[in-house]
Design goal:
This protein is of the alpha/beta class. The chain has helices at residues 46-50, 81-86, 107-120, 134-144, 159-169, 194-211, 230-236, 284-287, 335-349, 374-386, 412-421, 446-454, and strands at 7-10, 16-17, 33-36, 96-101, 125-129, 151-155, 173-177, 214-220, 239-245, 251-259, 267-273, 276-279, 298-305, 308-320, 328-331, 356-362, 394-396, 399-400, 406-407, 426-430, 439-443. 27% of the residues lie in helices and 25% in strands. The structure holds thymidine-5'-diphosphate and magnesium ion.
């Protein structure tokens, strides 16, 4: 096998360079380029397999039609509703998933619970840890109360051994905790480097596709907030789920950022307790602060996370500033979006936030990315500016255009239904939002919002 001299690989995006550089030109990260011994080509490539001088002809591929009868294998349900939901309704046989998250967020805990849930349904489940000894995992299982389930436990890091075992044991699903600890002896690079992570993930994904075994890979996020070799692994797997927590809070969100077999942006909500992760079936309760006393600056946003409606309180504080350039701070929302909204409120509704500090907070630690939150944020801002509380039994949603118009948003029906379910009696929504049961005040432009906030 022809071996080139060492190459330099970006540990963040996997870009390969001939010489070292301080900054990766592909992804813009600093200090991520490391020297790695490598083969002539990626593992399994033509160059890698035959030293770059391939003479043999390829085999002709047979095409088939789009239509045809492919038996859809039933999805494997873990019995953990929040996990199943985040995966798009259970695990698809032969699929590979990546579950990423900060150290200590609870990935191993979650997957051990998922493994025992699957084992309870009679499936053959393997849990291979490269980080912890089996004794440690047994202790955790005991703490979680799942030590009686028939999960096949092992502690190993050699990819060759793991694949040989899996081929012999043929489990329905295997959990690898974590992908960064595996190493393939065909590569000279150290475990945890992009080359190793990529090669091991690729082999395991190939195994999943060829055997029908479900492969769940745990990926650690590095200190600077990235899974080592995140992009290379994300492309290979069928679904990428991030397990997130807000500092100092007990709840955890499992968020699908990619899913070939279901809706992306689907979330599962959990709460970390002394005996493991508990499912939170109704997350709106977490994100609504409750309390009957109406205070100014709070609006309830009827949002959608994936396919699930979630109500969350948006809080704003507008106070006179002593600074030459007043402060703008935002938690749980996009800062640029706040600046835009303030500019539109200024230009289209004549509200002057210019001499005020503005703080915006999404209650409960949720992070909102939907444009539909514009109107709710605007409502909270107006309410704080006027020091006039909004009615606590109304939800607000709608996208605000630069012209000051309020645009309709998707899934209006689902938002209103959830509001009704949680005891809200009305909504401020874009024109056209109809509901048989809720009183909907329609907002066509920001002027309607301002009128409503002044005199709700
Ligand atoms: P762990 O699953 O080991 O995290 P990861 O695999 O993502 O690194 O979880 C570790 C944290 O979870 C640790 O701080 C203790 C806490 N924990 C509980 O609060 N309750 C429990 O029942 C368990 C098992 C862990
Ligand atoms: Mg762990």
């Amino acid at each position: 096998m022809a071996r080139h001299s060492d190459t330099f690989v970006c540990q963040s995006c996997g870009a390969v360079y001939g010489k070292w550089a301080g900054r990766c030109e592909a992804c813009g990260e600093w200090n991520t380029i490391q020297q790695e011994a490598s083969e002539a080509g990626p593992p399994g490539s033509l160059a890698g397999a035959a030293g770059g001088s391939v003479k043999t002809k390829g085999k002709k591929i047979e095409f088939t039609a789009l239509s045809g009868s492919t038996e859809e294998a039933p999805r494997l349900l873990t019995g953990n509703n929040e996990f199943d939901r985040a995966c798009g309704g259970g695990l698809v046989p032969g699929s590979a998933l990546l579950i990423g998250g900060d150290p200590g967020v609870g990935k191993s805990t979650l997957l051990l619970q998922v493994a025992s849930g699957l084992a309870k349904t009679g499936a053959n489940i393997a849990y291979i840890s490269g980080e912890e000894a089996t004794a440690q995992i047994r202790l955790r299982a005991k703490r979680l109360g799942v030590e009686k389930t028939s999960v096949h436990l092992a502690s190993a890091t050699s990819l060759r051994d793991i694949l040989a075992t899996l081929k012999a044991e043929r489990p329905d699903a295997v959990i690898i905790d974590s992908i960064q600890t595996l190493w393939s002896d065909t590569l000279p690079a150290a475990p945890g480097t992009v080359t190793q992570v990529r090669a091991c993930a690729q082999e395991l994904v190939r195994f999943a596709k060829s055997s029908g075994c479900i492969v769940l890979l745990v990926g650690h996020v590095t200190k600077d907030g990235q899974i080592a070799g995140p992009r290379v692994v994300e492309h290979m797997v069928d679904a990428v789920l991030y397990f997130e927590s807000e500092q100092g809070r007990d709840f955890r969100i499992l968020r699908a950022v990619k899913n070939r077999f279901g809706a992306a942006h689907e979330i599962g909500v959990f709460e970390m307790s002394t005996d493991g992760l508990r499912e939170v079936a109704n997350p709106s309760e977490l994100f609504l602060t409750g309390g009957d006393a109406a205070v100014s600056g709070a609006a309830v946003f009827a949002g959608i996370e994936g396919t699930r409606p979630v109500l969350v309180e948006i809080q704003a504080l507008v106070s006179p500033s002593s600074l030459a350039s007043p402060r703008r701070a935002v938690v749980g929302w996009d800062g640029a979006r706040l600046s835009m909204l303030l500019a539109v409120l200024d230009a289209r509704a004549g509200l002057d936030f210019g001499r005020n500090d503005v703080f915006l907070n999404v209650a409960g630690g949720l992070r909102i990315a939907e444009p539909a939150a514009d109107l709710a944020a605007a409502a909270a801002l107006c309410s704080s500016l006027f020091d006039s509380p909004l009615p606590r039994d109304r939800v607000v949603f709608g996208e605000v255009a630069l012209s000051g118009a309020v645009r309709p948003v998707n899934q209006t029906e689902a938002r209103l239904k959830e509001a009704k379910k949680l005891g809200f009696s009305g909504a401020l929504a874009p024109t056209g939002a109809q509901s048989g049961t809720l009183r909907v005040s329609e907002a066509e432009t920001l002027a309607d919002l301002v009128k409503w906030a002044r005199n709700p």
